Task: inverse folding
């Protein structure tokens, strides 16, 4: 199997394209789908640049994205490489520290808009029509057989964050996190134990879900919900997925990319932008499970029956 590779030159190209997208589209915010920085070299059980030290963040995160970090909010989620599930015990603390999450969420938990320690769950609105919900799908040592969202206080947050329609409904309630409910591989597949979360999405009128974990791009459609996997900002896996049917895959790509998402009324447009050395942002070429080429934006329509908040 071809191992995923971290290419600092490609990461720089993606970072430059991201900066152009922020400038050209007047972006409001950036979401992350976990694994905020990644070990660049691993030998047996030892790794460099894991995220456990502040120095790791400078070259792997703050340096390539410095011009965008200075301009708009970054809203992170937690991945397995941000926790002791895969790497160092204090990686999660470094995410909380380096992104000032304790300060940013200090008053949100008391108001019911966040649930933290030992997880990272929060929600926020950017307009009356759009609400984002960050979900922590990681595991911890004390909870090896389940995921951290099953912790009672976090599940209480989840149930309140995804109320049945039409309670506190908004046009767009958009969850984002790390482990994808639907994924065709090649290394990771549909995440086990996500049924209760999917039920919450469906009852609350969710139309689009954003995840990471697998180092490629994937788009699935299941029961009226579009699921996006975006985990190849600098670390890509070109080997073809092998679980298209189980993941309900529409298209996929192994190219490095980020997602440019715009919402206009009842319509969401999603573009997977790759390395763009010129002045024009270039969409990556996606493939269907049958191997046919697909390029250009993906359009997600608004669910029926949702009223404005």
Result:
């Amino acid at each position: 199997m071809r191992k995923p590779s971290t290419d600092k030159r490609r990461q720089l190209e993606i970072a430059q394209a991201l900066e152009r997208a922020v400038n050209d589209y007047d972006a409001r915010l950036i979401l992350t789908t976990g694994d905020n920085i990644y070990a660049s070299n691993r030998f047996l059980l030892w790794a460099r640049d894991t995220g456990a030290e502040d120095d790791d963040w400078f070259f792997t995160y703050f340096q390539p994205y410095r011009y965008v970090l200075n301009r708009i909010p970054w809203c992170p989620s937690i991945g397995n490489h941000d926790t002791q599930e895969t790497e160092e015990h204090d990686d999660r603390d470094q995410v909380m520290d380096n992104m000032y999450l304790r300060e940013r969420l200090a008053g949100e938990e008391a108001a019911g808009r966040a649930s933290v320690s030992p997880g990272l769950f929060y929600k926020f609105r950017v307009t009356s029509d759009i609400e984002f919900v960050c979900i922590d799908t990681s595991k911890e040592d004390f909870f090896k057989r389940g995921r951290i969202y099953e912790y009672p206080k976090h599940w209480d947050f989840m149930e309140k964050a995804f109320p049945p329609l039409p309670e506190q409904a908004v046009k767009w309630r958009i969850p984002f996190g790390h482990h994808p409910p639907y994924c065709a591989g090649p290394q990771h597949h549909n995440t086990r134990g996500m049924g209760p979360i999917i039920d919450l999405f469906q009852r609350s009128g969710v139309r689009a879900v954003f995840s990471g974990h697998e180092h490629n791009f994937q788009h699935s459609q299941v029961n009226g919900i579009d699921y996006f996997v975006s985990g190849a900002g600098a670390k890509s896996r070109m080997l073809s997925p092998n679980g298209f049917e189980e993941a309900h895959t529409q298209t996929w790509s192994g190219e490095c990319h980020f997602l440019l998402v715009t919402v206009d009324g009842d319509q969401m447009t999603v573009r997977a932008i790759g390395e763009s050395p010129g002045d024009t942002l270039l969409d990556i070429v996606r493939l269907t499970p049958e191997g046919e080429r697909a390029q250009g934006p993906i359009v997600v329509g608004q669910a029926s029956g949702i009223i404005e908040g």
User: Anything to note?
Assistant: The mean pLDDT is 86. Residues 241 and 290 are 12 Å apart (CA to CA). The chain has one domain: 5-301.
